[in-house]
Every structure is written in C-alpha cells, then in structure tokens.
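Side project, low priority. Logging it here so it doesn't get lost.
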Amino acid sequence: MSRDIIERYFAAFNAGDGDGMLALVSDDVEHHVNQGAVRHGRAAFAEFCAHMGVSYREELRDMVIFVNDDGTRAAAEFTVHGEYLQTDPGLPEARGQRYVLPAGSFFALKDGRITRVTTYYNLEDWIAQVSQ
C-alpha cells in the first residue's frame, strides 16, 4: 500500500496533475523543501504545486523507491529532467534552460496518506546549470 501511494504521487507529479498529488497527502501534511521554510497543510502544498507548474516543467526519471517494513516511511531517489520556464524570485532569470539533477524525497505515511514530504537536491548545481 505505501509503495503504491508513492508510485501514484510521482506518477501524478510527472503528469503535472497537482490534484492527483493533493489527493494523496493528509490535511496537515508537512512539506520540507530543500531551501526555505516548512509549509504546513494541504492548502500551502497546493500553492507550492501551482507555483511549480508555472515556473518549471519537470519529469522524474530513474526512480528507485524504498519503503520500511511497517509502511510508515518511504524514500525515493531519482533524476530530475527539467526546463526553467518562469523566473523564480531570487533565482537566475528563466530563459527555457534545461537541467538534469539528481534528487531524493523522503516521506512519512499514516492512514493511507502522505503526512510529510522532504525533498533534497543540490541547489548550487541547479543554479550553475541554468546560469550557462
């Protein structure tokens, strides 16, 4: 069950289906991003997803998913293949630059929902790629 939730989450991400992602998170989900404050709740997560859909087009490939024995924690390693579409404040100007970036996500799960998402990638590597 837990693996299925994570697979569905990433399938929705790759399809650009924010509603599909939102259907898998709890009302009180914690979203820990690589840089920045923790977002609390489904509404904050929805806002982040909407912003990402405007500024970036990304596909996650080479996915490997790990789930602990009791299904309460999961992790995924993958490669982000993306295009920078609209300038994000404080970041380099967007000009449709493409990037490839290794990344990973960690999850807490409870009652069939994702209660925490933590994502890590090398921001300096991304900045270097989009600054060329």
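Brief comment: The two ends are 43 Å apart (CA to CA).
Revisit when time allows.
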